[in-house]
Structures are given as structure tokens and as C-alpha cells.
Design goal:
Helices cover 44% and strands 13% of the residues. The chain is α/β, with parallel strands linked by helices. The strands form six sheets. Strands 5-6-4-7-8-3-9 form a seven-stranded parallel β-sheet, with helices on both faces. It is globular and about 90 Å long.
Length: 734
């Protein structure tokens, strides 16, 4: 007898070849992060890696089962093996554990349980009970007759094959939170997921570079003639601790966090894709640190736009593949890419185990909804428990967030770093922003003017009124543009901000609040909650001192859009009460921090919907049933998505050939590229609009769960959710 035992068909790979890749990657992981991975578990370091080697070596041995082999052989059009068994009821990972020679490795009962479960659940199929009788038949009739050849081909040792291991994996035996083996299991199973996925993707599990990001940041600062400030020195001195730092705009928080990162694997998170793209560019281009990945839902489209023309599609796909497999030293990402682990979906251990030896940076935490912040804080508690480190950096911090971490027993260093540059003189105006159109128009002739509205519809309305008034060089930016149009606008607003002696108006929404490096002369804004408002202020006189007599910040408090669904009504009203005491004055940085702290104290939050949502979210998170949520659902919650993707009918009609080509394309790679082109044409809108737009929205015939919308669109104002002159849909999008 002589035939090959395959692991997969595309590309063709034997079980032995695949296993060897895992073992090579295991060695990389061990060499790079061994002491960090095992620091919170009570196990000898050598023993942990010996058990990990066993898990890797035996995780796919069950693929020798003829039922599995015939699935591969059929795809390869090879002769099928003679057998009465198929691959439908018993899966390879349910067979693999019995190959483990536990006696040879002197495994204790707990060690057997860890090894068995890491292997048994590495594909997380929905199996309540294994057919033991069928499994015994497979052993006797399919595997035992070939066992010597199997051992020779796979180069493994085995003992007598029995089904008793099922008692250590099924039902109540499954290891969950609260079990004394939980942390070891999360590490062992999670690392197996990483190793398996990276090896299947034919990439290394970790970037082995010794280049320290902290050295590159220090060199960047030296070249710019920047000396480390107090915040940056604090970050350097506390590289081995959890940190919460409050720093004024212009304090170099990004550089501080990267100095804190040192040479550790790091995940840098921000609320918006535009902000993540900017940080990615900053690290790669300005700081010139190349070991950085980009991870969010449209990352590949951004890389296609950014990379040089001589770079191939394969290069971009490889970079995305590396980022998705968490390969890079630094990964810039949105939180929906890593924090779903909090929901303990099937396979969550992959991310969780990686975070055990990593650092996580949370930038602009105040920009998230209370439910999302609850998820982040719960995640930070879990990261802390498994040995990872985190840094929260922000210009303002709601008090309850810090208090909650303390209640959960998480230790951290906390410090404020306040810049004393006087930048913002505010004026509260008890009228609508529309009433000052004439003044705004006049000021824009000699100033860079930024207008921020709370909703898209309000932004569009202001844009149209200013156009009617004859305003020159006026631009509009919000999230209801096609991807290519929005990308151009995002670049244009940054260029406009940098150019000297160029004046005009940009009207936008909250999408400019988080980490967008722009600097305007005047800000006209609808009132929002203080945390959001102070972020807006950071887009005007970003680092410059303001000594003018007239206020450079105009805040409109009457008939404000978005209250009750974009912003909590009670917190909005409390914000106005707190801010009134400073009307007409320079708002110093310390005052901003103190006002947000007070606004989000338990005393002021009592009875608000915000606080209710925050507490309810924690109740849910503290009572999650392990493996009861899908990863897709977890990501949906984290993206705070109640959205649908629509394409304007006019855009759809112009691109009908692309849709038809996509449907008819047989080549997987070409089809994937066409799908990405199509995705750029869609716009995300709140799903409640789907029902209000009944009759104006139909399913897209080529793409499942996407829709065609018959309303106006152009690259000047975006998608207009307006049916007629008397009916306009309230928009929750930014």
C-alpha cells in the first residue's frame, strides 16, 4: 500500500507538510514571545511548549480518515479510497485527539483535557454529541488496518486508539471561564488557531524584526527637533504598566503611545477608518516604520489607492492577508477587528491569546457609545487578566470609565498632561446656525472656516444655503458618499488645512472629530455633548495660541439636529448648563477636562439613558454564555451597525456592465477584485430608512443583502435621502 495523505487541495498539501509549517511557526512564536505568553499561568515554560508541540503535531492526524481523504481526492480527480465511510458525520478534528500518545508524554488528567480540547475544538463545529459506535467502527475498519503506514507517513507515534477521550471534551467537560484550566486553555487553543491559520495561508505567524518602534519614534522626534515632553517621558518610564493618560491636543499622544509600545506586538485602535488610515500613514511614512499593518473592513481598497503603481494586486493581497492573520509588529485597526473576543464567540481564543503578549492602545475612547465603551472596558479587564497591557489616551475622559476599571480590579497608572496654550474663545448663541449664514459667508473670504453639524441632513441643508448665498470655495464632507468620492474629500480637507492664503468653508459632521489632523481659523458648530464638542474644538487652532478679541468658536444651541438619537438628550442639556458659565471666555484645557469629568460623574448621569445603557451593557457582558454568539454578530454589535448598503440607481445604471462582468467571472481572483470595485460604489445608511424608503429601495439582483436606492446622488452633496419637497428622512449617520 502506498498513497498520499492530503491536508488540503488548494493548494495541494499533505498532512505532514502542513504540520511541519505549524511546527516551524511554533518555534518562531516561542523564540519571540515565550516568556510573555506564559507569564500569568502556573506551568513550567518548557512543559507548556512541549504540550503546544503535541497539539500542533497531532491536530490534523484525523485527516487520515478515508472519508476525509476522498473529499480531497475527488477534488484532485484522483482514484478514491475503498471505504464505506464518508465525511459527513465524523470530522477529522473529532478523530485526531485519540492519536495523541499521552503515556509517552506523561500527561496528567488536566494536561490531557487541555490537549484534547484544543485539538477537538480547533474548528468549532456545531456538534452536540459524537456517535461513539461509528467512531469505534472507523478505528477498527478504517484506521487500525493502516496504522503503521500512517505513523510512517506522518512521522508520529501512537498508542492504542480508543474513544475514552470523548469524556474529557464533550458536554459539561468543556473548559469555560471559571474553570481552573481556563487561561491555559485560551492560550493553547488560541495559539493553535493562529498557527493553523497562518500556516494554511502560507505566512509566518509573527514578524521577527528586532526593529523597535520606540527607536524609530525617537529618531523621528530628533529629526524634527522635538524633545520628549512630560507625557512622552511618562510613557517611556511606564512601558510595563497599564496606562490611562489625558493629554491636550498637540501633546504628541500618538508618539507617546508608540514609545510606550517599545518593541512589543501592538494593536493601535481608533473609532473611524479615516483616523486609522491616517495613523497607518503616519507610522509608515513619517516615522518610517514599515512593520505596520492596516486592518479594517475597507483596508484593501485603501492600500490599492496608496501603494505605488508598480506594486501588484498580489502584493496588496499579501499585506492584507498578513494583517488579517495578525502578523505585523504593529496593527492599526478599528475595534471591531479585535474586541469581538469579549463575546466569547466560537474561536475567540485566537485574538484573546494574541493579546496576552501584546499591547493595546485605545485612542479617543470618549468617541464611542456607552454600550461600545462597556465592551472595550470589559475587554481591557480580560486582556489584563491574561497578561496583556493597555494604554488609554484621550483629550477628555468620562469619570465613570476610570471608576469602572478600578471596580473591576484592573491596576493602571493615571496622569493628566495639560497644555496651557490658550486656543479657544467660545461664544454660546441661543439661535440656529442657519441664522448666521451671512456672517459665515463673509468670514470665509479671509479665513479657513469649519462648520460641524450633528447630522448629514443638516450639513447638506447648510451647504445648500451657503451656496445660495454665493459662498465661494465651499465643500461638504460626510459619510454618505461613495468610497472614492469620500476618499478624495478626506484628502482635500487635509490639503486645504495645510495651504497658506487659501480660504473658504468646509461643512462636515462628527467624522472629523477623531484624530484628523486639520487646523481651521474659525469653527461654527451645532451644540453637542461636551466630550464631542471639545473634540470639534481641536480642529480649530489645533496648536496655535489665540489672542483675538472676537470668539473663534461659535456654538449654536437652538433647534439643534440629532438630539435624542445621535446625542443623549439629558447629557446634551447638562452640557449646556455647564458650559454657560464660560460663555465669552477662553476655555482653557484644564477646564475642558474637568467639565467632561463632571458631566460624566455618577451624580450627573443618574437617571440618564446613557447611564442606563452603560450599566445594562455590563450586565449582559458579565453574563455571556461562552460560545453562544457568532463572530459575525459580535462584530456587528461592535460596529454599532444597524445599517444597510445601498447604491444610487444612477450609479448602478452607469456601472451595470461591472455587475454583469462580476456575475459571469469564473476566475476567483478576478471576481474578488471586481467585488471590491463594486463595494466602493455602495453607501451605508441607517437600516430604519429602508422601511421609510419603501418604494424607493429594491434588492440588488447581483449582490445579496445590498440594495439599489432611487434617490439623488452626486459627488458634490452625496446621497440625498429626500423623496419630495415636504418629506425628508431624519438621518442618524454622521
Amino acid at each position: 500500500m502506498s498513497y498520499t495523505y492530503y491536508a488540503k487541495s488548494n493548494p495541494v498539501e499533505t498532512i505532514k507538510e502542513h504540520t511541519d509549517k505549524l511546527l516551524e511557526n511554533l518555534q518562531i512564536l516561542r523564540n519571540k514571545y515565550s516568556s510573555k505568553i506564559i507569564k500569568v499561568i502556573d506551568i513550567d515554560e518548557e512543559r507548556f511548549w512541549e504540550l503546544m508541540e503535541v497539539v500542533c503535531k497531532y491536530h490534523d492526524t484525523g485527516k487520515v480518515f478515508s472519508g476525509f481523504q476522498n473529499v480531497i481526492r475527488q477534488k484532485l480527480k484522483e482514484q478514491l479510497l475503498q471505504t464505506t465511510f464518508n465525511n459527513s458525520e465524523i470530522k477529522h478534528e473529532q478523530i485526531s485527539p485519540m492519536f495523541v500518545p499521552c503515556k509517552k508524554y506523561n500527561m496528567t488528567q488536566d494536561e490531557r483535557k487541555l490537549v484534547y480540547q484544543a485539538i477537538f475544538y480547533h474548528h468549532e463545529r456545531d456538534v452536540e454529541h459524537i456517535n461513539r459506535q461509528l467512531l469505534k467502527q472507523i478505528i477498527q475498519e478504517d484506521i487500525n488496518p493502516n496504522i503503521e503506514y500512517i505513523k510512517q507517513e506522518l512521522q508520529v507515534e501512537t498508542e492504542e486508539l480508543k474513544t475514552f477521550y470523548l469524556g474529557l471534551v464533550e458536554g459539561q467537560s468543556r473548559i469555560k471561564e471559571g474553570d481552573n484550566l481556563y487561561t491555559k486553555y485560551c492560550l493553547m487553543k488560541g495559539l493553535l488557531h493562529r498557527l493553523d491559520h497562518c500556516s494554511s495561508a502560507n505566512i509566518l505567524v509573527e514578524n521577527e524584526t528586532n526593529d523597535e518602534i520606540a527607536d524609530f519614534v525617537a529618531n523621528f522626534m530628533k529629526n524634527q527637533n522635538f524633545k520628549p515632553n512630560e507625557l512622552q517621558e511618562f510613557s517611556l518610564e511606564n512601558q510595563d504598566k497599564n496606562l490611562i493618560v489625558i493629554g491636550s491636543t498637540g501633546m504628541g499622544k500618538t508618539e507617546s503611545s508608540l514609545l510606550w509600545s517599545k518593541n512589543d506586538k501592538t494593536f493601535f485602535t481608533l473609532p473611524l477608518r479615516i483616523s486609522i488610515n491616517a495613523i497607518y500613514d503616519r507610522i509608515k511614512q513619517n516615522i518610517e516604520y514599515t512593520h505596520v499593518g492596516l486592518l479594517h473592513s475597507t483596508a484593501i481598497d485603501y492600500l490599492e489607492e496608496k501603494e505605488n503603481e508598480d506594486k501588484t494586486d498580489e502584493y496588496e493581497l499579501e499585506k492584507i492577508k498578513q494583517s488579517r492573520n495578525l502578523y505585523e509588529k504593529i496593527t492599526t485597526c478599528t475595534i471591531d477587528q479585535i474586541f469581538p473576543f469579549v463575546f466569547k464567540y466560537k474561536g475567540y481564543e485566537k485574538i484573546y491569546a494574541t493579546l496576552s503578549y501584546s499591547k493595546t492602545i485605545i485612542d479617543e475612547i470618549q468617541a464611542y457609545s456607552p454600550e461600545i465603551v462597556a465592551i472595550i472596558l470589559k475587554g481591557l479587564q480580560m486582556i489584563n487578566n491574561i497578561g496583556g497591557k493597555f494604554m488609554i489616551m484621550t483629550a477628555t475622559l468620562p469619570r465613570i470609565y476610570k471608576q469602572k476599571l478600578e471596580e473591576m480590579g484592573v491596576e493602571f497608572e493615571y496622569k493628566q498632561f495639560i497644555k496651557h496654550t490658550k486656543r479657544h474663545k467660545i461664544q454660546l448663541l441661543e439661535k440656529q446656525i442657519d441664522e448666521d449664514i451671512d456672517k459665515i459667508c463673509e468670514k470665509s473670504k479671509n479665513n479657513k472656516v469649519l462648520i460641524i453639524a450633528n447630522t448629514i441632513n443638516k450639513a447638506i441643508e447648510l451647504y445648500n444655503k451657503l451656496k445660495e448665498q454665493g459662498a465661494e470655495n465651499i465643500n461638504l464632507l460626510h459619510s454618505r458618499f461613495k468610497q472614492d468620492d469620500r476618499s478624495k474629500k478626506e484628502n482635500n480637507i487635509k490639503e486645504f488645512s495645510k495651504q497658506e492664503n487659501v480660504f473658504g468653508i468646509w461643512i462636515t459632521t462628527q467624522i472629523v472629530e477623531a484624530s484628523l489632523d486639520i487646523d481651521f481659523d474659525l469653527l461654527y458648530t451645532e451644540m453637542s455633548t461636551l466630550d464631542s464638542l471639545f473634540q470639534r474644538l481641536g480642529r480649530c487652532y489645533r496648536s496655535r495660541k489665540y489672542d483675538g478679541k472676537e470668539s473663534n468658536i461659535k456654538i449654536y444651541t437652538n433647534q439643534v439636529s440629532g438630539i435624542g438619537f445621535v446625542y443623549d438628550k439629558e447629557i446634551f442639556e447638562n452640557s449646556i448648563k455647564l458650559l454657560k458659565n464660560y460663555n465669552g471666555e477662553i476655555l482653557e484645557e484644564k477646564i475642558k477636562i474637568d467639565l467632561v469629568d463632571k458631566l460624566y460623574s455618577e451624580q450627573m448621569l443618574e437617571g440618564t439613558n446613557f447611564y442606563k445603557k452603560f450599566k445594562e451593557a455590563f450586565f449582559i457582558l458579565d453574563n455571556i454564555i461562552d460560545y453562544n454568539t457568532s463572530k459575525k454578530d459580535a462584530q456587528k454589535i461592535l460596529r454599532n451597525i444597524d445599517n444597510i448598503d445601498v447604491i444610487p440607481k444612477s450609479v448602478y445604471d452607469q456601472n451595470i456592465n461591472l455587475f454583469e462582468e462580476y456575475e459571469n467571472e469564473k476566475d476567483i481572483s478576478k471576481k474578488s477584485k471586481k467585488r471590491r470595485e463594486i463595494n466602493k460604489l455602495f453607501i451605508s445608511i441607517n437600516s430604519s430608512n429602508k422601511y421609510k424608503l419603501n418604494g424607493y429601495i429594491i434588492p440588488c439582483p447581483y449582490i445579496k443583502n445590498k440594495f439599489i436606492i432611487d434617490t439623488k446622488y452626486n459627488n458634490e452633496i452625496g446621497l440625498l435621502l429626500k423623496i419630495d419637497e415636504d418629506y425628508e428622512i431624519a438621518s442618524r449617520e454622521l
